[in-house]
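Predict the structure of HTH gntR-type domain-containing protein.
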Amino acid sequence: MEPIPWPVDRLVAQLGRWSAGRGPLYLLLALRLRQLIESGQLPPMAALPADRTLAERLAVGRGTVVAAYDRLRQDHKLDRHQGRGTWVAPAVLSGARPGPPPTANPLFLNYLEPMSGVRPLACAAPPGPPPELAAAYQLALAALPGEDSGDIGYHPLGHPRLREALARRYTEQGVPTGPEQVLVTTGGQQALALIGRLLLGPGEVVLVQAPTYPGALEVFREAAALIRTVPRDLAPTGFASALSRHRPRLAYLNPTNHNPTGTTVPALARRALVEAADAHEVRLIDDEVLAELTFDGAGPPGLAAFDPHGRVLTVGSFSKTVWGGLRTGWIRATEGDIAQLARFKAIHDKGSAALEQVAAAALLPELDAVAARRAAELRRRHDHLAGELRTLLPEWSFEQAGGGLCLWVRLPRGDGSAFAQVALRHGVAVLPGAALDADRGCADRLRIPFTATPQELSEAVRCLAEAWAAYDRAGGSAAAVSVHALVV
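Done. Here is the predicted structure for HTH gntR-type domain-containing protein.
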């Protein structure tokens, strides 16, 4: 059996926070590789990158990778032959079943493998729940049905109270909507997964902005779709040209408080985007998960406001406006789309948690006040982060966000993925730009959220400045830390 090439980008992402520990770097790297091998995430005969290639991507000396590979070879986890390369030993996991590897996006690894002692700037999530949420749960508990009510608690389409409340909210915003046009999901991520299941098949084209939300990219990769990109500013002529050139089945757009840049597409351009999609018979996803977090008043209407023919599927969620632990999202679409999506939803989980949905419905009348308070606090934290970056890292550049949760930062030189490895060894996890670009562009970028407290942001920027000094001294490449250095 011949070795199977394993892309260096995937391996670096799988390694995650490998260096955030105490001990020689080569031992930390060997330990993480061993974990990946023994868990089956690196299957037998996976051919690992060359020493120098992996060292450059991890911003370490080549000797670190050589020593780690040799340690695993001695433990019979790797086979290694000069001139032929290094690969996972075939007997390590004899019962492994071939198939696509699990996600290695650094965004999800930060959720799956949290680590103490590391400031988690790779995840953009709001702080803890507002007091209104506890009050909403009290109302939901009081409204629980009795034992003889006949309510079995399964609502694959969503609890009627929440569907009606969401439909009413859209109608009040100028987008006439009935409850039959709303499906409640377990967060915005499940909403994207269900839409991908409905509209995308292997080899079909989906158009996305570059950069974009990495969770959407993982959904489309899981569907085996072909991902093509359009510039994130969504200029109508460029968007229409991309539709004509790529002929996608679906386009995923995040036009309000765009993740990661915090920019918003004006109303006139939105109308042109929908008209272009209509002309090319392309379905649109309008991701409005961050839409409530505009710094200066309300943003423009969603794409559905310009959609007379039902091309737009709108995705919303409470997770960014209220709390990440409130795993309640929704899809607003045509009644026919919702009926089909509900069948997939029923297969997945028979419906989201009923108590949480009743609490969300009770919270909905307070959502505007909660969102306004959140946006005001996020703006203060945005300004604080921007000031700290200008003071401690004046070479770094960024545009101020108009809303959302993140700054999109450009490094003056070097590679964001390599720098993220050095930052990790200084106690900060950041998301490199390549993780948000389907074309693996944006290599000189970082996504830095401003959701932490001002004190935490100040400390994180101080650590980033120390990491940048180490990275810059090494010429923006390997050997930023020696093979035998101790890391905290």
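The longest helix spans residues 367-392.
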